[in-house]
Amino acid sequence: MPCVTHDDAPLLADLMPWSVAPLRPGRAWPTAPDPGSLKARWDALLKAEGPQREALFEPTRMRNLTSAVGQLPGQSTGTGRLARAGGPCAEPVRVLAAPFDEQWLIPDHRLIDTARPELWRVTDAHQVFTVETGDEDDPLLVTSLLPALRTGRVRPLYRRPGGAEPNLAPGLAAHLAGRLGGAPASPTDILAWILAATGPGLTVPLTDDPALWSAGVELGRRMLWLMRRDGERPKLPGGRRPYVRAPLPVRPLTLAYDEDEETLHLDEGRVSPVPAEAWDYEVAGTRVLESWFAARTTVPAPGTLAAIRPATWPPAWTSELLELITVLALLAELRPRRDELKVTTSITATELREARVLPAPEASRRPASVLDHHEEGPEGQFTLI
User: Fold this and answer.
1) Whether the model pTM is above 0.90
2) Which of 380, 256, 244 is CA-nearest to residue 321?
3) 156 lies in the same domain as 302
4) Which of 33, 35, 172, 239 could form a disulfide with 92 if both were Cys (CB 3.0 to 4.6 A apart)?
């Protein structure tokens, strides 16, 4: 972890004051690694009637077939009660379902126990979400997708759509710029530093050394790019790029790693080279590659909607696996640089309080009022929030 020579570093919660608790899906079947399965599950739910539909839905205290809820912001799903619902499945949206695991979700409020509409309202091409993991080595993840992880709190970089109003303590950027000799500190730069420098307890040491700041921001931007995976796709150097060396089976059931040969075995299928650092990459004590594979191969209980899934291993999953190996390997290479990020001169929490940057105003800890249009409420009634 970054070496910090002071014990008065500000907390992440002070620097990015608005946070949202994670989504609580309530049932697993509206999320899947492929969108086709979700549409088939929806069709199966609507074909069932009465008690059978209720059993397939998997009701909870928060949601059942008669729950009355509005649309999720930005979506056009129905708002009638599921007991009498009809029509096609809402177009699935891409979400981050687990660390480094991009899956699909039916964006229907009636299917999700606690959907956190405030996150949906600010999800767009400009947004970056920071997610607390509870892991000492990798305390934060970032994603451009709606985070559906069941981990810690979610902190959007922007409080409004369109990249408007950064979710940063008011005055923080100006204070940093002043202490760094006038160099501007953009919201993305600050987030990059946070990603690179955050330590145990979600403390964020801040430096007033322009050279160290630039090094940390550069490192954090590299981490941001790898985790967000937008734009140009990451690649390992030639000769180190993973390839399928033996065809993957129709439906692999086991995953194993041969460290001597740097080979990932999916039954008789083989992928190599796979660096040991990629295989060993963990978040909160869980090996990422094993978790990713289990999400696609664990056999659900028969007769459930989750049991509706691809009959064979889709080629898209192979491409996703190769990219995931690449991302984990490249992120592992950055860990020594994070360990070397020594903050020897600092901007302390005490200094930020004296400058009245902290504590952030209470209003900055609540969602911004972003609605300029009607959102459809239960049973088609429109409300303006």
Assistant:
1) yes
2) 244
3) no
4) 35
Per the rule left: phi > 0, alpha: psi between -120 and 50, beta: everything else, 47 is alpha
Residue type, 10: P
Contact 128, 122 (CB under 8 A): no
Q: What is the pLDDT of residue 1?
A: 46
Do residues 144 and 66 both lie within one domain?
yes
Say yes or no to pLDDT of 375 above 90. Answer: no
Res 371 pLDDT > 50: yes
> Is 4 part of a structural domain of the chain?
no
Same-domain pairing of 109 and 150: yes
Please say if the pLDDT value at position 377 is more than 70. Answer: no
Other beta carbons within 10 angstroms of residue 105's beta carbon come to: 24
- Decide: helix, strand or coil at residue 130: strand
d(Cα 306, Cα 295) in Å, to the nearest integer? 11
81 inside domain? yes
Q: What is the DSSP letter of 263?
A: E
> What's phi and psi for 10, nearest 5 deg?
-70, 160
pLDDT of residue 344: 74
Domain of 326 in residue numbering reads as 243-337
H or E element: which one contains 256?
strand 255-258
Report the C-alpha dihedral over residues 65, 27, 94, 251, rounded to 10 degrees.
Answer: -120
Contacts 24+ apart (CB under 8 A), 50-54: 53/82, 53/83
Q: Is residue 112 part of a domain?
A: yes
For the segment 102-129, what is each residue's pLDDT rounded down to a tens digit? Answer: 999 999 999 999 999 999 999 999 999 9
* Distance separating alpha carbons of residues 157 and 111, to the nearest angstrom: 27
pLDDT reading at 78 higher than 90? no
